[in-house]
Amino acid sequence: MSFEQRLAELGLTLPTPPKPVATYVPFVQVGNLLFLSGVVPSRDGQIVYKGKLGRDVSKEEGYEASKLTLLNALANIRLAVDSLDRVKRVVKMTGYVASHEGFTEQPAVINGASDLLVEIFGDAGRHARVAVGVAELPLGVPVELELIVEVLPASS
Amino acid sequence: MSFEQRLAELGLTLPTPPKPVATYVPFVQVGNLLFLSGVVPSRDGQIVYKGKLGRDVSKEEGYEASKLTLLNALANIRLAVDSLDRVKRVVKMTGYVASHEGFTEQPAVINGASDLLVEIFGDAGRHARVAVGVAELPLGVPVELELIVEVLPASS
Amino acid sequence: MSFEQRLAELGLTLPTPPKPVATYVPFVQVGNLLFLSGVVPSRDGQIVYKGKLGRDVSKEEGYEASKLTLLNALANIRLAVDSLDRVKRVVKMTGYVASHEGFTEQPAVINGASDLLVEIFGDAGRHARVAVGVAELPLGVPVELELIVEVLPASS
Question: Model ipTM?
Answer without folding.
Answer: 0.96
